[in-house]
Amino acid sequence: MFSRRAFFKFCGLASGGALWSGGGQMSAGARPLAGGGGGVVLGIDRLAASGFAGLRGKRVGLILNQTSVAGNGSPSRFVLQRALGRQFTALYTPEHGLDGREVAGRQVRSRRDPLTGLVAHSLYGNTRKPTPEMLANIDVLLFDLQDIGSRSYTYVSTMALAMEACAEQGKAFMVLDRPNPLGGRRVSGPPLAPQWKSFVGQVPVPYVHGLTAGELARMIAARGWIKACPELAVVPLAGWSRSMVWGDTGLRWVPTSPNIPRCESPFYYAATGILGGLDGVDVGIGSGRPFEYAGGRGVDGREWAASLERRRLPGVRFRPYQSVVKPGFGGAQLLIDPRGGTDLLGLAVLLASEVCRRTGGAPLRATTGDSRSLFHKVYGSDSLFLDLQRGRPVGAIVASWQPSLEAFRRERQGHLLYS
Questions:
Q1: pLDDT value, residue 35
Q2: Nearest-angstrom CA–CA distance, 268 and 266
């Protein structure tokens, strides 16, 4: 264990800015970093530029996958091993595994990493929280995963449980920050009801929260959303601002999982992922454009796409499709402008409501047992399923979120790192 002062030591960079930000409320000297028009510098690169300050002489572990790369494409684990040598001691992998190729929901085995020779402990196998044995050989655990900005994507759940485990074992935790590909302004969707907390809803934020992983870690620590909080540091991005989507960053996109292949995919995941939790629907899984479709059995895609177009929803267009993956399924292909003003979760509820209406409620009847429970967990409560059954207007459902969204916007303000 090392001292808090050593861990939170500030390191002067060429820009004169402070490198590390601690957990909880922003300190007086930790002003939000202004963003520019591209050329974003990642947390791993800022850590390297500091000479890995605070890590020298410490045993270091890393939560990683294929997205854990420096700005030049070098794997973060290679960067760390080259700098720290034998003090770089352990790896930990989330859902989809070390290479991001495992199917969603499939358990991942621990294995030896061929690049570093280190054991990559699975945090999506027999345990989803690092065990004391897994953490025994480290002093500080780094988190360097690319998230996609939706609560149900499990990488942030992995982060929260790892923070809790580090606190319990007296280990420090450091987030090497990365951009939110949805940007930092979108805040949308339902709150998480406490009784539906799960690995696809571990942290009580709106479905689309508009935070980077570093900001979310600060909020987790400050709000007491885990049983115990570790010594926390965040190595922030340089050059990122809340108005940026991924295409503004100048960074190369690495698919975060098999069904998030493009930098625009997080927008479609937010818009159709909830619909995809129902049985008897099609959102394009198995096609070359996962999450970019919304349809059901027997739906007249031409008529429905035209109906959606007439709504003139900001930042999204629709065109008809007939599924080649699911014969007999039709619907609308979505064309989302990442810089448009689409309410992604409002769109998600509209699509779910319309597919259920146009199929006579077939997806609701087909979604039973574990599938229905998972649907509730992803949404954050059982209210949407009940609302769809009784045909509640979409506008009323969206309006029901607004008090919690307003409260969240206020609560997150003191934990933001970027202007």
A1: 43
A2: 5
Helix/strand/coil percent split, the chain, to 5: 35, 15, 50
How many other CB atoms are there within 10 angstroms of residue 252's CB atom? Answer: 11
pLDDT tens per residue, range 214-259: 999 999 999 999 999 999 999 999 999 999 999 999 999 999 999 9
Which helix (H) or strand (E) segment is 109 a member of? Answer: none
User: 41 lies in which domain range?
Assistant: 4-252+408-415
Residues 204 and 337 in one domain: no
150-170 per-residue burial string, b: 16 or more CB within 10 A, e: under 16: bbbbbbbbbbbbbbbbbbbbe
Beta-strand relationship, 88-93 and 119-122: parallel
Whole-number pLDDT of residue 414: 96
Per-residue tokens: 4: 């808090």
Total structural domains within the chain: 2
Residue 160 lies in a domain: yes
Mean pLDDT confidence for 137-165: 98
Task: Identify whether the C-beta of residue 118 lies closer than 8 Å to the C-beta of residue 91.
Answer: yes
Candidates 211, 253, 203, 208; CA nearest to 236 is 211
Residue with tokens 């796409």: 305
Comparing CA positions, the residue from 65, 84, 83, 89 lying closest to residue 75 is 65
Amino acid at 237: L
